[in-house]
Every structure is written in structure tokens, then in C-alpha cells.
Amino acid sequence: xSNNETQPLTAETVNAVVTALGALxxxxxxxxxxxxxxxxxxxxxxxxxxxxxxxxxxTETLLMDMHRAAVAAAS
Length: 75
What we know:
This protein has about 80 residues and is an all-alpha fold. It has helices at about 10-30, 35-55, 55-75.
């Protein structure tokens, strides 16, 4: 695959980005010491709450997806 290759912005590519970010969070949390994993997930939840208060629903939703990935990795 060429480094210059890009994908058009579609619902499918956006979903792929969300899935890839979730995988990245999952893999990152698994590398943390067990006593830090829950804190990582809690930080994502707090960030999502802050975005909710600001009315940034799209960012809030993405952060909650990442929070779920972190919780799954920590369990």
C-alpha cells in the first residue's frame, strides 16, 4: 500500500477510524500496569462528560466508545 493512498470520507471510513481508535485504546490499556488501567478508562469517561456539558455530542460519543474499549481491555 502506498503512503499516498487516501480514502474518501464516507460513513464506512469514519466507522473504520472509530474501530481503529478503539483497537488502539484496547492495545494501549493492555500494556499498562493493572493498577493504571481503570484510571485510563475513568479519564476517558470524564473527558466524555466534559464534552457532553459543552454540547459536543460527536466527540462525547467517540470518547464513550473509547471508554468501552478501555474497560473491555482492563477486564
